Description:
3 copies of one chain form a homotrimer.
Chain A: E1 2-5, H1 16-24, E2 29-30, H2 47-60, E3 66-71, H3 74-84, E4 89-95, H4 112-124, E5 129-130, H5 134-141, H6 147-154, E6 160-161, H7 163-166, E7 181-186, E8 211-215, H8 221-224, H9 226-237
Helix pairs in contact in A: 1-9, 2-3
Amino acid sequence: MFVLVHGSWHDGSHWAGVVERLESLGHVAHAPTIAGHGHGVDKDVGHEDCVNSIVDFIVAGELADVVLVGHSFGGSVIAGVAEKVPDRLRRLVFCNAFVPLPGQCLLDDCPPHYRTLFRRLAEESTDNTIQLPFPLWREAFIQDADLETAQRTYRTLSPEPFRPLQDILELAEFHRLDLPKSYLNCTEDIALPPGEWAWHPRLSARLGQYRLAQMPGSHETLLADPSGLADKIVEAGRD
Amino acid sequence: MFVLVHGSWHDGSHWAGVVERLESLGHVAHAPTIAGHGHGVDKDVGHEDCVNSIVDFIVAGELADVVLVGHSFGGSVIAGVAEKVPDRLRRLVFCNAFVPLPGQCLLDDCPPHYRTLFRRLAEESTDNTIQLPFPLWREAFIQDADLETAQRTYRTLSPEPFRPLQDILELAEFHRLDLPKSYLNCTEDIALPPGEWAWHPRLSARLGQYRLAQMPGSHETLLADPSGLADKIVEAGRD
Amino acid sequence: MFVLVHGSWHDGSHWAGVVERLESLGHVAHAPTIAGHGHGVDKDVGHEDCVNSIVDFIVAGELADVVLVGHSFGGSVIAGVAEKVPDRLRRLVFCNAFVPLPGQCLLDDCPPHYRTLFRRLAEESTDNTIQLPFPLWREAFIQDADLETAQRTYRTLSPEPFRPLQDILELAEFHRLDLPKSYLNCTEDIALPPGEWAWHPRLSARLGQYRLAQMPGSHETLLADPSGLADKIVEAGRD
């Protein structure tokens, strides 16, 4: 069984294409929305609220043997969830996802020009949230889709609460957990710039022993090629 | 509309397979030859002559809304063209191409063993040009083609004027331009060696915000897989 | 003609799928077993015994015009073979293989956590050999196969003699040889971790001028996709 945890500016509905493919392959897949995410909700949340909302979803559903998948920001969420309900999990799959070091915040893992941009956007908002400018979304997040898809999906994004990116994450327990871990890297993902600040191998290496899976695609492969991503999640997530 | 600017040792005719595919897809595509390039021409040119010859081509043809594509050496040419006729351009696409820093020359971006080799070859020539040795062409430029293709295409190459590689390029204006930019990286291109001196992300990162596209292939994918490259140029070049 | 030299924990039989494909394409292919490797043999060998066993195989068979392919540990073996019978060889192909520097041992090219692990495993054995733990094999060596394949192939592995990994290799002559060389890199091979300790370009760069070929796959692509690997070996190994 898969539980798919989305990233910043997303909500659970952005996994729809992936869920559809997983279900067509006979898998059970859930895609809950993280607290403070999506449209028309209170954005005043911290990182722990985010983690707790996914823990609550898993516990309430009495889910077990879960392959827990995190995309982007969702990586830090599944790391926190793994500390709280490790016995319910079979494997963690990080999809171009953050793997925070203990005692740091997510902003520490973003290159300086993003830190500056995000701080400015949060200050300019009325509710301490950040919204991606369309040109950045189109060029660096979803460059492998056509313009119409980029425009249509941009309208489904919602402002990202800034506080979870600033909260210090302990996560010492996560790094001691013996759970199997995979890193799924889409090779054209430049949402974090290639090189010094890249997703892989900078963040994947922090997992210790891990399984690597790769496929062509941008940061938003879950929107540009959901079926292909689902197949790769199955490969990355199996025993 | 595409204008395709070739690299060293090439002339416009080397784009023939790419142009054919682009036209079959309904696009207009031009592939002019840079000044001092091709067979039977005066090789005594500097980098500015190279740039001006492409500017002249665009202005004479009254071309507008141009997606300007540069391969290899052609990257430095399209950067110079962009400074002179920015209003005629829609986007720049760098295909395993140089992206010079202001105040440097192209040789500065070549690894030491190439600098030494190129200087020696230029000195040994009668007209300050350099010609690639076949083993280097076969192994590091077109290793994904069969031997017959490598031999046949080698015979179409012409000596490269050395001066444009030594000329200091200002290009301060280029780096301030707000034009959309893409970098198309063929993942087996070892014409520049992988690692410290690689095309990507070393040179792509200089573009600031850019769109990345990747495909399998050597430096001479325009000869080894022109149709595949054309499709990727469309993806990299669209809005 | 291809001579395929296996890596650690393997013997010649692990090339069976590759040999079958090469033969179906009309090639001659041999896959000898290195001294001290395989089941039920004396494991008390040094690196020179390994090299000599392959030299003997080539000389005894009066083989000539050989494309000599080495996988993993086999890279250090074909480097040694090339010093002894260069005139019998047409090209060397390193498949995610070691390319030792003169005066070093293979352990020098392994990251610290492997050195520690291998030393401990050798000490715990009764015959100075090392055996891979299954979780490491499954996650870092053959992660692109299904679990059944991983389990079945794990049972065919045999303990690796530790001495050849500790022996100092001279190989000064190898690095002066003018033989054509290729590096075939499977892009998901994390048997050596991506980044600082990666196969490519860390080890490939030591070849000087070389031809690069790449394909998707883990360290055990010879087991997970033998037919695809055989096709790539043909591409990497042709003139």
